[in-house]
From TrEMBL:
Keyword Hydrolase appears in the UniProt entry: yes
Protein name: Exodeoxyribonuclease 7 small subunit
Top-level taxonomy: Bacteria, Bacillati, Actinomycetota, Actinomycetes, Mycobacteriales
Tagged with keyword Hydrolase: yes
Function: Bidirectionally degrades single-stranded DNA into large acid-insoluble oligonucleotides, which are then degraded further into small acid-soluble oligonucleotides.
UniProt subcellular location: Cytoplasm
GO terms under biological process: DNA catabolic process
Gene label: xseB
Catalytic activity: Exonucleolytic cleavage in either 5'- to 3'- or 3'- to 5'-direction to yield nucleoside 5'-phosphates
Source organism (scientific name): Nocardia colli
Length: 71
């Protein structure tokens, strides 16, 4: 799952959607289900990392704007 660390947000999100669909369909044995669940967790964490980074960038941009406006 180390390759997930290199995924962009959209790729991680799209793969997470696919993992959820596969789990919802069922028909997998326990080991396959657990492996998919773990992959889904890793993909969700990667998405959150991207979102946290985007949130930070927006907050920084707003802070700079406030400083420039003298607030």
């Amino acid at each position: 799952m180390a390759e997930i660390a290199a995924f962009g947000y959209e790729r991680a999100r799209d793969e997470l959607v696919n993992v959820v669909k596969m789990l919802e369909q069922g028909g997998l044995d326990l080991d396959e289900s657990l492996a998919l669940w773990e992959r889904g967790e890793a993909l969700a964490n990667r998405c959150e990392e991207h979102l946290a980074g985007a949130r930070k960038r927006v907050e920084d941009a707003l802070s700079r704007t406030d400083l420039e406006d003298g607030k």
